[in-house]
Hints:
The protein has 16 helices and 19 strands. It is of the alpha+beta class. It has a 4-stranded antiparallel beta sheet. A 4-stranded antiparallel beta sheet has the order 3-4-6-5. Strands 12-9-15-16 form a 4-stranded antiparallel beta sheet. A hairpin with a 3-residue loop joins strand 5 and strand 6. Helix 11 packs antiparallel against helix 12, helix 13 packs parallel to helix 16 and helix 15 packs antiparallel against helix 16.
Amino acid sequence: MLDFPIWKRLSFWAITLVLALLAIPSIAMLSGSDVPEAFEGYEVNLGLDLAGGSHILLEGETEAVQRERLETMEESVRDALGDAEPPIRIGDVSTANGRLSFMLANPADVDRARELLTPLMNGQGLVREWDLSVLDGNRMVLTPTEEGLETAVDDAMEATVDVIRRRIDELGTREPTILRQGDDRIVVQVPGLEDPEQLKNLLGETAQLEFKLVDANALPSDVAQGIANPGSEIVPYSEDSDFAGQFEAVRRLGGIRGDSLTGAQQSFDAQTNEPVVTIQFDQEGGQRFAVLSTENVGRRFAIILDGAVISAPNFNEPILSGSAQISGGFTTETANNLAIQLRSGALQVPLTIIEERTVGPDLGRDSIVAGAIAMGIGSLLVIGLMIASYGRFGVYATIALGLNVLMVLGIMAFMNTTLTLPGIAGFVLTVGAAVDANVLINERIREERRRGRRVVAAVENGYKEASRAIYDANVTNFIAGVLLFLFGSGPVRGFAVVLIIGLFTSVFTAVTLTRMWVAGWLRGKRPSDINI
């Protein structure tokens, strides 16, 4: 009981003091004071309900996933049948009613076409994504399965969450909360955001970039009326373009998508000094772009962003460098936003903002003050009760309580976790729960003294016997905290974080530190009796 080697005492004090020092910047920030320069960057993050910020609820347009799957399948079918030996010619292609159907020029090719298309039915996974049927002898119909569509939507929404997180990280914000809600909704909470409009602009743009050849055979009169040749489609010019209000006819298939980009930066045109966006393709995308530009020198191609043409320049020469430049009447800010969107990737699902609210920092400040007052009053009452009930041992419990609060803040700052309003409630709860262990220990020591045990034996048995109940209770609380963290979201997780950290620190301070202090006092004073 009295055996605490010097190395053990030093290590316990080192752990305590380091974690307590890490709490200094968080205390300064929460109190509204300046954070000491030496501790900058180690303060705890504040959640949306404390720091203010933006809350946005987004809904995905899952119909776009089905349209894109149809377009991708059509291109895959054309490639598979066109590369056959001899090639299988098709015509009368339709994507009506969410199905892909086409006629075979030669009915005798049905079996060969079925064999070539079968590997496409399962896509990249084990789920059967398409059903293939033959009508009227030479019309093949590909119908997406419900299971395949659900899997595609789920994968697209998960990918969209990752893209949103990368875009928000580009803003330099800390600890955003990004969660799926149901099948097609995403909740985004960004604490401390100074420019909510920039966030809305970043999240509202899909950033689907495409390069498609302009249909040189399209008649201007037909284009103006929205009439496209077979295999082409009509795309409007962007509202920010010099040709706003006009349309362009482009080839529907055979272009290049922006998912092969590896980088995008805002820069300036060397000749006009206008803001532009410079993009770089990966190896495969660069090769495809080189082939596209080499085979179509002198022809125009459209740069399409989110279904609108931003420019339609000529291929004056082959572009073999794997990079290109996008211009379209950008300002420096809009060019930088587009570069962020392209770097972080295109949203797999177009999103619509269906709910938005902004929390001001004043409300969070009021919550911090109210929480501090509640914790202060609770602490004073607990301290008074502990000292009145247990004397010197109550003083030890009080000191352990203060160190416990500091250590929780220090660990949260070190782990870069977020403090929310429920987290403050967790702190208030910790004030009462942290002394539970000392109450059990002190009551056990009293009981041992009533049985006639000597002081040292009573204290030793008190800590030993009470520790079993303390560990059992904290293990059950730890399991509850882990479950709250795993299955909860947002504020519930904030409460769970404080609870879990508080369990470890309270056991360390209430059992280990107080035992070390009591052992030092007993070893130095050798009292014949104790007032407890």
